[in-house]
Amino acid sequence: MAASHENDSEMDCSDNEDCYEDYNDYYKDEDSDVEHVDPKKTDPEYFEYKCLSEEEVERLLNETVENLSNHLRISLPLAKVLLHSHSWNSIEVIRKYEENPQQTLISARIDPPCPPKNVIFSPTHLTCSVCVTLHHVDRFFHLSCSHMFCKDCWTMHFEVQINQGISTAISCMARDCVVLAPEDFVLKHLQHKTIIREKYQHFTFQDYVKSHPELRFCPGPNCSIIIYSKDIKAKRAFCDQCKTIFCFRCGCDYHAPTDCQVIKKWLTKCADDSETANYISAHTKDCPKCHICIEKNGGCNHMQCYKCKHDFCWMCLGDWKSHGSEYYECSRYRENPNIAHESVHAQAREALKKYLHYYERWENHSKSLKLEEQTLEKLRARINQKVMSGLGTWIDWQYLFTAANLLAKCRYTLQYTYPFAYYMDAGPRKELFEYQQAQLEAEIENLSWKIERAETTDRGDLENQMDIAEKRRTTLLKDFLDV
């Protein structure tokens, strides 16, 4: 078997909390040996946000509604509809409303009042055009469009819409009428429908949060926390309640330095081409020197054949001695400069070759994170035995866990550099990125190798390697994290 190492991570948008739970401590650990400075000035991932409960968010939204209502002297329900239709941008609503109130209402699907339509008048009764039943006029209601229907039909209409998951988008029953039903109008017709009322209020709250650019539901399973930030960027948000970490802008797994649109394209491509890429998912390769079959059982890509002791790179099978800081090139893809003049089939093969190059490395680092998590568990067990035997305390060995957490953070960033590089245009900027990517990869593998051999690694040497790896990671993000 070959040696290898450390931590765990799932790349799906719903499964990222466990992979970050350990190395999140590295972000927050004020007692680590790495020097702490002002993160606003030095950390490219720094992000100010708050974790709020549903009650706190409701107060925040209601305060915004009240302020707009007072400023424009309009009803609270109307203010809420206007804000929701303008992504809760009070300044924009005020500007438009003061310039042209009628057009602002129409744009929010609230028509100015007009004479009643589609009704058959009698002295005290009207016929509802939906149920075709004669009712007393007191049982008729209408929205700003003045399309009148009986109370029972309104109630039935709202129940059907809400049970289909519709809330803020419920419109008038009249054909081709797009006027929206405000919240107070709906609730008035659901006075005796407790379950439907609660469902409606739940759906409307979700719609309000989703339409608010400064709010984001935590994607963690069964988590009710909502992240609030005025800084609307693709930055790393961490839920205090369920420990889920995600991108604030898109709500998916955190993906720096790759931006939201690119990572969606990449994940879609990986899903579409998964069958093509299946052949590269094997866990075994032959030693390039003695050709014995080797299984990768750790996260480190620095492999050592257990039979002939040959050191080589798992990715390119090259001699590990050539993977120094100057020659660490296996992360780069070499484009064929003459591919534009080749046949269509040749271009298709080249495109597939390029994709597989990046996909293999993306997938390899994902697997390395999982394998390194297993290594970390073994490390915990060994340290526990040492502590029980009186060979130091947990505090004495804490630096190893700090190193493992940092390794996971660095490798996770490195994994997401591959979609970034895949979609980059060739040129000096891509060359600089791939150079920094290669430097980071080299230092990560060095750190992984040292952690895997923690009992024989000098603490000072390990902490120095931690500092180098984190500086490589931070430098790359500062230069290429465009949010």
From TrEMBL:
CDD domains xref list: BRcat_RBR_TRIAD1, Rcat_RBR_TRIAD1, RING-HC_RBR_TRIAD1
GO cellular component terms given for this protein: nucleus
Gene3D superfamilies xrefs: 1.20.120.1750, Zinc/RING finger domain, C3HC4 (zinc finger)
Protein family membership: Belongs to the RBR family. Ariadne subfamily.
Pfam family, one: UBA_ARIH2_N
Region Disordered: start-end pairs: 1-25
Coiled coil region boundaries: 437-479
Keyword annotations: Coiled coil, Metal-binding, Nucleus, Repeat, Transferase, Ubl conjugation pathway, Zinc, Zinc-finger
Positions with biased composition (Acidic residues): 9-24
Keyword ATP-binding in record: no
Parts of the chain that traverse the membrane: none
Catalyzed reactions: [E2 ubiquitin-conjugating enzyme]-S-ubiquitinyl-L-cysteine + [acceptor protein]-L-lysine = [E2 ubiquitin-conjugating enzyme]-L-cysteine + [acceptor protein]-N(6)-ubiquitinyl-L-lysine
EC number annotated for this UniProt entry: 2.3.2.31
Name of the featured protein: RBR-type E3 ubiquitin transferase
Subcellular location per the Swiss-Prot or TrEMBL entry: Nucleus
Main subcellular location: nucleus
Keyword Translocase among record annotations: no
GO biological process terms on file: protein ubiquitination
Domain RING-type: 124-334, 290-334
UniProt GO MF annotations: ubiquitin protein ligase activity; zinc ion binding
